[in-house]
Amino acid sequence: MEVVPSLNSGEQAVPAHVAIIMDGNGRWAAKRSLQRLRGHEQGAEAVREALKGCDELGIRYLTLFAFSSENWSRPVEEVNHLMGLFRFFFRKEIKALCDAGIKVKFIGNISKLPEDVQGLIEEIKDLTKDNSKLILTIALSYGSQSEIAGAMRVLGAKIKSGELSPEDIDETLISRHLETADLPDPDLLIRTSGEKRLSNFLLWQCAYTEFVFLDVLWPDFRKEDLQAAVREFGSRQRRYGAL
C-alpha cells in the first residue's frame, strides 16, 4: 500500500485519495417518472463532473463504486442495461481519459462480466497504463468481504506451504494482499443520496477514512459537490486514534 499525504491547496487541505459510492440513480429517475435505466445513463455525466473536480483540486486518486457483487441480483434487464452503459462509456471516454493523463484501474471479480466488457477493460488498462496525473479505480462486480476472504485464502495457502508462519501476518501484510495493494487508503469517502452506510465497499481500507454523506442524488452530482465535501474534509482533525 502506497502512503500518500493529503495535499494542500492554499490553506485548504485536499485529500490525496477520494472514494465515492455513487448512489441514487434509481431515485433520481423515479422522481421524474422515468425508468431506472435513465438514472444510470445520467449518472455517467456525474462521473465526468467528478473527474473535472479532481483535476481542479489536484486529487491524485479517485475510486468509484460502479457495480457491486450484490448488484448481480437486480433484474436481468437492469443488469444488461448497466453492462451496455459500461460498454458505451468505456468506448466513448477512452480517448478523453488518455488525453487527460488518467490511468484507469479496476478492482472486483471482473471474470463475471461479459467477455466483450472484459476486453474493453483490458484495452483501457493497457492504453492508460503509463498515465499518472490521476489514478482512477473503478470497482466493478466488487465486494469488500469477498476481497478480504480472497486475501485470507492466499495467506492461508502460503502458511500451509511453509512460505509464511501465522506470526508473520499483520495489518501491513494483509493490505498487501488486497486488490488495492498499490493504492493509498482513501482519505475521504463520499456517499450520495443521503444513505449512510458502506455497502460492502473498501471495508478494510476505510479504517481511518473521513466520511461525508451528501443528500444530492448521484445524477445531480457536480464538481461543486465534490468541492463542498473536500471543504468539509479540510475542517476535520484526523487523529488516527491519538489525542
Automatic annotation (TrEMBL):
The keyword Metal-binding applies. It is an enzyme of class 2 (transferase). It holds the Pfam family Prenyltransf. Its EC number is 2.5.1.-. Belongs to the UPP synthase family. NCBIfam families: PRK14830.1, uppS. This is Isoprenyl transferase. The lineage of its organism: Bacteria, Pseudomonadati, Pseudomonadota, Alphaproteobacteria, Sneathiellales.
